[in-house]
């Protein structure tokens, strides 16, 4: 008698015992069949595998969640488990049963995972998100169907691959949820232009990480990132101030007379000529108006330091800007001095790379007065 015939005969005997009404007896039976699956010399023939699939599937369906979870733990480690069984376990309503299979079974295909991702809840999605590798198609499904907690789990998994399209969705969501900021900035392969969109919404520690990543971008990667970013120019930054058109003409006339210089900017800021200062800063530093306005409105002095360094403004001029922007704030001089240290520590190359990403926000033909 062959090994497969002997195993098949024993399985048939066990099937007869499956008619036993005792749940304890059936639990023992399931463990016996599982042991047989792992102790019988592989590979199992197709007929034998089908028998294992049928018997274990029938028995597991009658068992409580704790017993199914025990079966799932063992089957998750198998390179070639009974396929109907492993898919059934992955779809189990109990996450304690589904988790080990969803996290660890190499037998599940992308189609199997997509079936779970589109039909089960957040716990199942989080389990898939923790697999050693997650393909771009499965990651996209998780981002589409997952809540922000699930998204955070996926982002923290460096083995999860995300397409450019999926990254764009992630960045849009992350800008609205501080809980996702660290997970986004900490990922290895976020497109640089999208990563730099996060600069103005994350805390100082994460801004430093973005600058460090900018420092490591090679020229070819930078050009490719800028090319991709141009397709995603920011919209919805808000309308321009009512005096924008008139002041812009005034600033351009001043520039033609060579009267637009960095020190003149300080006088504009001191005299509270806000629109003129912003347009002039854009002209001299080559940034867009919406970014400049955000820097001023939100007192983003670290961002202003980057702009001034990229434009090669003197450190003393930057400190003047900082004190004027902080204005009546307590310890304005002390805070300005702290940002002065940031200015000094920045290299102009890193500042210029960062500003190049911010320039992607520049738009043409969509300027409308408020």
Topology:
Layout: H1 3-17, H2 23-39, H3 46-62, H4 65-76, H5 83-90, H6 95-104, H7 110-117, H8 122-129, H9 136-145, H10 148-155, H11 164-174, H12 181-186, H13 192-197, H14 204-215, H15 219-229, H16 244-256, H17 262-270, H18 274-285, H19 289-297, H20 301-310, H21 315-326, H22 332-345, H23 348-358
CA-CA gap between termini? 89 Å
CA-based gyration radius:
31 Å
Question: So what's the overall shape?
Answer: rod-shaped
Average pLDDT value?
A: 85
**What is the total domain count?**
3
Précis, in short:
The protein is built from 23 helices and no strands. By secondary structure, the protein is mainly alpha-helical.
What does this structure look like?
The chain has 370 residues and is an all-alpha fold. It has 3 domains: 1-105; 109-232; 244-361, no CATH class. The protein has 23 helices and no strands. The longest helix has 17 residues, at 23-39. The radius of gyration is 31 Å and the shape is rod-shaped. The N and C termini lie far apart (89 Å). Mean pLDDT is 85; it is low at 233-237 and 363-370.
Key features of this structure:
370 residues, mainly alpha, 3 domains, disordered C terminus
